[in-house]
Amino acid sequence: MSVNPRIPRFSKKDELTGSVARAIVTTLMEEPEKFVIKNQGIYLLTEKASHSKGSGGEGILTLRFSDPQKHGLVNGGHTFQAIRQVAEDQERPEQWNPYVRLHIFEMGSADSSVITEMAEGLNRSLQVDNPSLENLRGTFDEIRKSLEGKCGYEEIAYRQGDSGNVDIQQVLMYMSLLNIKKFPDRKIHPHTIFSQPKVVLNNFIEDIKSEDSAFKRMIPHLHEILVLTDLIQRFAVEQQILGRLKVSNGKKQNRIRSEKNKNRQAYFAGGAIEGRLPAGLLYPMLAAFRSNISPKSWSEGKFEWLTKPEDLLKATIEEMAQIVRQEYDDNKSKPAEVGRKEAAYRGCYGVLFVELAQRNLLVN
């Protein structure tokens, strides 16, 4: 790792820290088959690389590393450490066969200054992601101002390397799920943006520039949205119908309310969440609260709830839990597939819509 200018950080439990590193680990645990298309790979600098044919059509690749200051892992340190962490985890899935791209550069006797420039260039071009660039441009300034001083403010990671536990792209996703400009009613649902962080970011960048911006309506109420997201998770994991669901294919401690998943911090609502609710089950329930946004206020450029979200959540969480559980069963116990398909969104939206209608809170 001597040639890599970006060294991964570890917690006291010797686990990777930071939102980006945790996202890599999550993919390796929950969707290992998609890791190769979601990760940029590992980059190695070597003095010499040679390939020879072995028996049975196999090939042998030999890499020579002679100087730790010139050769080694130049980019992809977080990926490498994440793979090691999950590979050594006794609770990882039994059928675990992710692939990672390996890029090998044969440097020969190249000068150390060239190697340094190459290392810095690779890290800048590959690791400075879109949110980091937008943060430099000030795109997220209004979000910062809205959350400043409120519970969980310091937990937002606006760029790679930030210590916050909640990635800014996750925050944008939560707001996008409630965007009634793009998803106005029961006919159009936001399942199309599940696992599409770049689409969500680009939509935000374009929308925030417009005079009729959906995000500008929501940003003053962002903390309310984040609190609601915490509360949905808190109440959902307490539902008996969800608590025993598997959230990974690990051998042990693989359920929503397994001991290792309990006592998770609710960064914005305060207190704890006694389980881990996958995004695929969370998103349909959060998106359902579009029905609780006042169309009249929205048309006037404001974001207002028809009724207090927490009260509505308490009245509907049991039914919504039943809906996402049914979709979980119908999609081969894969939470991510629930998040990608319309059915759970449509069902949860309908539950809240009926509850609001019974309270005579819907207006034409």
TrEMBL record:
InterPro entries: AIPR_C
Abortive phage infection protein C-terminal domain boundaries: 17-328
Name of this chain's protein: Abortive phage infection protein C-terminal domain-containing protein
Source organism of this protein record: Brunnivagina elsteri CCALA 953
Source organism phylogeny: Bacteria, Bacillati, Cyanobacteriota, Cyanophyceae, Nostocales
